[in-house]
Fold these 4 entries.
Entry 1:
Amino acid sequence: MKVIPLRSPGPVYSGWAYLLLGEWNRLEDVNALVDTGTDGGIVDIVQTMNTGIGKRQVDIVLLTHSHFDHAGGVGRVTATYGCPVAAIAPTDGVTRLVHDGEIIRLADRDAEIMACNEHSMDSMCIYVHGDGYLFTGDTPLFVRSTGGTYSDEFATLLRRLTRLPVRAIFPGHDVPTVEGAQELISRTLAIVEADIEKSRPCAQ
């Protein structure tokens, strides 16, 4: 799988979008866009790319969550490509609901949907099997110090991720982590578990 980070060239605040393509741009590959950014300006960039002869440049959009800096450009993307929009909860522009644990074909790989409501109630991560790529939106995997408040469900997600060979993390705003991704998740899990334990009522 090829991962192409995209961000609108305009002055408006926006998260990263990621275009996922197969290694050989075959007809059967599913060109996928993870998030759209705020204004859809990434369309102008995608239009200049070689995404496969005889293929639609974007076959499907997946939204990590519905906040404007990740999903505001849905209208322009779908108007350009006529593609479905998948998310874990209904919101403007969504035409397909996916669920936790669902396997979906993206580019030339199978990817797994992972629900996580730590950032918002409609947040999800996307894990690409085979390549070990993890797309996180604004799910807070980069926890560096104690003192936060976290849910048991978030700790469960982190434990789930530690059991997978995560090789690279593609977040919504930071630069991708392509080295030490597994170690980063394990450190975050240790901090989150410690904070959760501190927040529990003392046993009588």
Note: The CA atoms of residues 61 and 85 lie 5 Å apart.
Entry 2:
Amino acid sequence: MLKVALMGAGGKMGCRLTDNLMRMPDKYQMFYVEVSEAGLANLAKRGLQPTPQAEALAQAEAVILALPDRLIGKITQEIVPSLQPGTMVIGLDPAAAYAGVIPIRDDLTYFISHPCHPPLFNDEVTEEARTDWFGGVKAKHHIVSALHHGPEEDYAKGDQIARDMYAPVMNNYRITVEQMAILEPALAETFTATVITAIKQAYDRAVEMGVPAEAAWAFLSGHVRIEFAIIFGISGFPFSDGAKLAVERAYDKIFKPDWMDNIMSLDALKRSVAEITGSSK
């Protein structure tokens, strides 16, 4: 069995991983590290007892950081010196690794893995799976992973842990930490979440203008799906001429000319992860 310390085991993300890994006692000897009152209560609901941090880290062959981005730098500065040589440190988000706030020891391995969440176009048929928005409970999803530092042969170990803690997983796409940071925060959060926020505001305006809310939602959600399929080349047919004209006329009214450089560039990305991790000067 692999000995795994799960830091923040009773938190929001920690509970997701706990629920999967606790079901694999034949593969993992788990040490659940938690200090918050709410987190301890979450572990108790699962019939689990926390392990003192020092005791867990002294035995761990892998340490999973289910911690807020802004705390990872501080906490890893404290724990990394005490880890046994060969230990794998697993991050769940690229921001801290890309910002350089995690101390690197040459005799440790650093592996980063993040869920893609259930795809927009999927084959889920049960209600439980269709409403598993995050994934990793009933809905299948893809994940992305990167070997940030360490020997190449350790990738297989990180891949297996990632597939188990995020299960059920379809594909684990291997990319770099920088590529993962381009995907999140830049693409998925900074850009896409902002655009979807604007879509919600436009929807609210349509309702304010007199469109019944249920009709507006049915119309919008259906069109979002088909527009994704058209724009990403999935549907096999193009927009109508009228739709093309609408996009052409509206684009410059909605987006600033330099929006791409301000969001989807490495300089912008580095500023963003510095803000997220609290490492900006």
Note: The chain is about 50% helix and 15% strand.
Entry 3:
Amino acid sequence: MVQSERAAGSELAHLFALCTDYQSAGRGMGTNTWFSERGKNLLASLFFRTTLPATRQFLFNEYFALCTRKTLMQYLPEVQIKWPNDIYVNGKKIAGILIEHTVVGNRLNGTVAGIGLNVNQEHFPDDIPHPTSLYLETGSLFEVPAVMELLHQTLADHWEELSETNATRLHDQYMEHMYQRGVFSLYRIGEKEITAMIEDVDPYGRLQLRDHDGRQHTCGFKEVRFLGA
């Protein structure tokens, strides 16, 4: 059962989940928005009692993206992670993730992870690039609460894997399932377009590209845009 009660006092319990069937102003990363038809998709925010060093906060992104992928692999044959926090199927976006941390001193003191996962939606606005859903990929309708239950259980089952000692394994898994990794594609960095391939993501979550001339480009979110293969 998705946890819905609070811990003692006014503090939220670890893995507390708040779900809705509609949002009028869905948020994405930066200034991005998230569109969802009422009752069709999974829309949830989850609270985690994270205590990672603030400098290693991207480990949480890797953990959450991998758990989302693992959940979707119960329904689909292949799922990839598009840096930093999107989930792709067959080159199309099926889910977006927004992560916000609270920091006390030099450590995280809690995390809220929001997710929008397209489940039963068939039609999307024309200005949304390359969307898809579980329904569009499989031809089947799904019970949204059941998908949420599976995601929540997957996050709980793999929580102990989120640690500094497990950082290398977590990162290797994240990179193994990276969309467009090792493929030369067109990117825009600032005002310049380059052909490069994804080589890695550094511990701070910055994308590392290498162009045809062997030069490395390290880019934070909103500093680079994928233009196409």
Note: Confidence is low (pLDDT under 50) at residues 1-9, 28-32.
Entry 4:
Amino acid sequence: MIERRFFVAALVTLALPSCGYRALYADADGERLHVTLSRSLIPDAVAADEVLQGVREQLAREGALAAGEGYPRVEVEVLRADESSEGVAAVAGQPRARATEVGLVGRAWIVRAQGAVPERDTGDVRAMDAVTVDTREGRLDPRADALHHDDALRAVARRVGRRLALRLLGHPVAVDEGIGRER
């Protein structure tokens, strides 16, 4: 009886059609894209490189990454890195931020050949993350604080890159993270 149920379940699963979802810009020929940095307006070169790595990582997952340089390619702009304090705490009798919210904004587009008109501009895509301020024995620990801040900025940059790639491929992705942001 169990074997028959298993056989029927397997047969029904194989016979059901897929949901029909397809990326908006999906190419039947399996186009592969190179990735390059068009410009970065932030001073942190590592964060800009993490955006590119995020784009490459997501394109590779989707089977759309080409190695090396050339065309067609994704051109990436890293526009802005943001910081804002989250709450206030008294540390050693002085007001300090309890946490810092780190954000990064980028955009990307596809260029098919040298001098060609850019296609599929993603618009501004932003990701954010909160970093708690490190204190040790009631005092601010600037070394640990700087380390956690840099880690958060790199993680946010990588997430922006993945989101840019998904938008370029036509997947539905929010351009700005709000209250229900992904971690």
Note: The first helix runs from residue 2 to 15.
